[in-house]
């Protein structure tokens, strides 16, 4: 069903400032999207995505994003299993949806070409 962990996502309060901060640490911006940046570092195959959002010390905003080649089928399979999740979305760059584990931890699935 899943091919790999696509990225690890961190919520930041200001994506532009955070992007510069990470770049000063040696990260490179590999993709710019509305409200988020995908960063790579060294030879790691798993990028870091920083996503602008509300920061709260009580909530953990870190979540894995899993890549699939067949997002519609993956979405339907998880829905058939009764797994709680969001609707399938298209932001113009990729398709994605969130789903939640037994402890209500967020995971996301994406597909992009």
Q: Helix and strand string, N-terminal first?
A: EHEEEEHEEE
Question: What portion of the residues fall into strands of 2 or more residues?
Answer: 35-45%
> What is the annotated CATH architecture?
Roll
The total tally of domains equals 1
> In DSSP terms, counting alpha (H) and pi (I) runs of 4 or more, how many helices?
2
Shape: globular
Enter the CATH topology name: 2,3-Dihydroxybiphenyl 1,2-Dioxygenase, domain 1
Low-confidence stretches: none
Fraction of residues in helix: 10-25%
Structural class: alpha+beta
Average the pLDDT over all residues and give the rounded result: 92
From the N-terminal CA to the C-terminal CA, the straight-line distance is 17 Å
Number of strands: 8
Briefly, what CATH class? Alpha Beta
Pfam families: Glyoxalase (PF00903)
InterPro entries: Glyas_Bleomycin-R_OHBP_Dase, Glyas_Fos-R_dOase_dom, VOC_core
Domain VOC: 4-112
Protein name: VOC family protein
What attributes does this structure have?
2,3-Dihydroxybiphenyl 1,2-Dioxygenase, domain 1, 39% strand
Write up what this structure looks like.
With 113 residues, this protein is α+β, with helices and mostly antiparallel strands. It has one domain: 2,3-Dihydroxybiphenyl 1,2-Dioxygenase, domain 1. It contains 2 helices and 8 strands. The protein has helices spanning 15-24, 71-80, and strands spanning 4-12, 28-33, 36-40, 48-52, 63-67, 89-90, 95-100, 106-111. An 8-stranded mixed β-sheet has the order 2-3-4-1-5-8-7-6. A hairpin with a 7-residue loop joins strand 3 and strand 4. It is globular, with a radius of gyration of 15 Å. The two termini are 17 Å apart.
């Amino acid at each position: 069903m899943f091919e790999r962990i696509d990225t690890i996502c961190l919520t930041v309060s200001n994506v532009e400032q955070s992007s510069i901060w990470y770049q000063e640490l040696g990260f490179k911006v590999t993709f710019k999207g509305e409200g988020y940046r995908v960063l790579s570092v060294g030879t790691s195959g798993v990028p870091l995505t920083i996503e602008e959002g509300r920061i709260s010390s009580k909530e953990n905003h870190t979540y894995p994003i899993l890549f699939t080649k067949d997002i519609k089928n993956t979405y339907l399979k998880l829905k058939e299993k009764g797994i709680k999740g969001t609707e399938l979305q298209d932001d113009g760059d990729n398709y994605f949806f969130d789903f939640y584990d037994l402890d209500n931890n967020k995971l996301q699935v994406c597909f992009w070409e």
